[in-house]
User: Fold Thioesterase domain-containing protein from Dendrobium nobile.
Amino acid sequence: MAGDPTKPLDRPTPAAITAEVDHPLHALGFEYSHVSQEKITGHLTVSESWCQPFKRMHGGVAAFVAEGVASAGAYMASGFQRVAGIQLSINFIKPAFLGDKIEVEANRILLSKTIQVWEVQQWKTNPTSGEKVLLSLSNVTLLCNLPSPVVMKSFEDAMKKYSKKYSKL
Assistant:
């Protein structure tokens, strides 16, 4: 049973968390599953609205997701300073097709006072063999010593709340 609809959930869903902390990724259907200063994970399902005419996920979407999750991690790791992507490289290994569930993992590989580098992997699971298939591998370099505007306070508060309570959703 799904639970009593008259009682609030003790824990928000990954979709609700993503909607609160990352509007652009939420619009794609992305859901965070782990949020920390060292690692970000999540998933999304390939939608027709962002496929090429050949029913393959558009490469720009993979790049958008890579920069989005790396930026979220860098924002937290910098002590909630504003971050700006300064370089993104992405290698496409295999295609993702309409309906594929994409798993995303971003790991911080460099942390300094001004620069962070994150590696982002995107993969799917082969439904026949159960094997993980690497789709893309990205490196995202971010400038991370910029002052954060006051309008970011609610985002900062939400990221702090979810990283402390729900580092594994």
Q: What stands out?
A: The first strand starts at residue 31 and ends at 35. The mean pLDDT is 87. Residues 59-77 form the longest helix (19 residues). The CA atoms of residues 21 and 157 lie 9 Å apart.
